[in-house]
Amino acid sequence: MAPSSNPLNELAFECAPVGIVMTENRIIKACNPAFASMFGYRVDELIDQSFAILYPSFEEFLRIRNVGVEPLKRTNRYTDERIMARKDGSLFWCRVRGHSLTREDDPLRHAVWSFADLSDSRPVHALSTRERQIVMHLGEGRTSKDIARVLKISPRTVEAYRARLLKKFSANNVAELLAHLGGMPG
Asked: Which residues have a Cβ under 8 Å from the Cβ of 5 and sit 6 or more positions away?
């Protein structure tokens, strides 16, 4: 899938104020300078690389795939806010939005994604991979049962993580926890 050769489209892609990336089976096939810069790379360093290099861990790379496929199949829209990793290993929050070009067949075969760096408004706190996952889903308003179903763990395990997070950040409820973690949605 080649981008249009319209000069205005090419200029919009190159100068967009957010990161834009086109993927094929989670391999980067094209990205704009804003996307590469956000992650601390040059564009040519990212082409034909797996998205796995941009995640804090390979486990998170695998798990987020499982979260995103169903919404893309259902509505051809996916959005979340998550922690990603820069080339230097530093972590940062970003807003991710996706749209599949092959929705019915295989939504990740060809997709377009936008990334917005949220570093200025949302600091990264020291959280384990599982804590990050739980916080991400709490921020999206999911219940413990919903989170358990998505992460394939028990609702009691989700509740235990939630309780530990509340205690760790001296929060009385999820809203306070999310506010403490930097104004996550909710």
From this structure: none
* CA 66/CA 169 separation, integer angstroms: 29
Which spans in the chain are helix H? 7-15, 33-38, 43-46, 58-75, 129-139, 144-151, 155-168, 174-180
Q: Using 50 as the pLDDT threshold, list the residues of the chain that sit under it.
A: 1-2, 183-186
Q: Which of 134, 117, 121 is nearest to 169 (CA)?
A: 134
What's this model's pTM, rounded to 2 decimal places? 0.70
Closest CA to 134 of 116, 122, 123, 148: 148
For residues 147 and 159, is the Cβ–Cβ distance under 8 A?
A: no
126: enclosing H helix or E strand: none
